[in-house]
Design goal:
- There is one protein chain.
- β5 (about 75-80) and β6 (about 80-85) form a beta hairpin.
- The chain is an alpha+beta fold and about 230 residues long.
- It is elongated, with a radius of gyration of 22 Å.
- The chain has helices at about 50-70, 85-95, 100-125, 135-150, 155-165, 175-195, 200-205, 205-210; strands at about 10-15, 20-25, 35, 40-45, 75-80, 80-85, 170-175.
- It contains eight helices and seven strands, in the order ββββαββααααβααα.
- It has a domain at about 50-195.
- Bound molecules: zinc ion (ZN).
Length: about 230
């Protein structure tokens, strides 16, 4: 059977997220955008580089995540005593001090969920480059979206900065490599979210739905949330 795995669905009907107008989405050329004719909302955009740039950002973010979790976040000096800790070290300390729920949440949202998200994204972006992208890419992409929702390093960074300001008068506080790495990680995750086009990835595995629509309904032909990404 001859299939063109890169073929986009040519009669995709979507609803405009701005005004709910149902319309057929034309093929969007690389670097182009499709806008709603009624309200001007961006319905779809096609990055010039849908897989290479997100993959580079994912790998860079994965390395930064390792650095952020293995180097001291900050060091604290007061009345001759000095201490420093990592993100997971802080979570472990909370666990031993009788706050297991908070410790588990911190470890999950700042280390485990981002690690799972980046591992899944790297796997998806490498697998989708194969001439016939494997159908399981769709399952991994769904898992990546779930893990992304729980990946909250920005909340932790905000908490750290508030704590830093509050204790700056009581002790000498020095930001460590981990803090700068966490900041860099946030920038890389934001850049990854902007550069990644899930529509292009779903289009690469659309062949699975063409072969067996009963087995792979819906998501192979359209994004999982049914709305185009701006
Ligand atoms: Zn509209």
């Amino acid at each position: 059977m001859l299939l063109n795995p890169a073929r986009r669905p040519n009669s995709e009907v979507i609803a405009c997220p701005g005004c709910d107008l149902l319309q057929r989405l034309p093929p969007v050329p690389p670097g182009g955008r499709a806008r709603c004719p009624r309200c001007g909302e961006v319905l779809a955009s096609s990055p010039r580089d849908p897989f290479d740039r997100p993959l580079a950002l994912s790998l860079a973010a994965a390395i930064t995540l390792v650095v952020a979790n293995t180097t001291p976040l900050m060091s604290l000096s007061a009345v001759g005593r000095h201490a420093d800790t990592t993100i997971l070290g802080g979570a472990l300390m909370m666990w031993t001090q009788g706050q297991p729920l908070t410790a588990a949440l911190v470890a999950f949202c700042t280390a485990l969920a981002p690690a799972a998200y980046l591992a899944l994204m790297c796997t998806v972006l490498i697998a989708v480059r194969r001439p016939l992208a494997p159908a399981w890419v769709g399952q991994l992409l769904r898992l990546a979206e779930h893990s992304h929702a729980w990946s909250l390093p920005e909340v932790m960074l905000l908490g750290i900065l508030v704590a830093l300001v509050k204790i700056a008068d009581l002790a000498t506080v020095e930001a460590g490599i981990g803090l700068y790495s966490t900041g860099t990680l946030l920038v890389l995750l934001a850049a990854l979210a902007v550069s990644f086009d899930p529509r292009a990835t779903w289009a690469r595995i659309a062949w699975a739905a063409e072969i067996d629509p009963q087995r792979s309904p819906g998501p192979s032909a359209q994004p999982p949330d049914g709305t185009p990404s701006p």
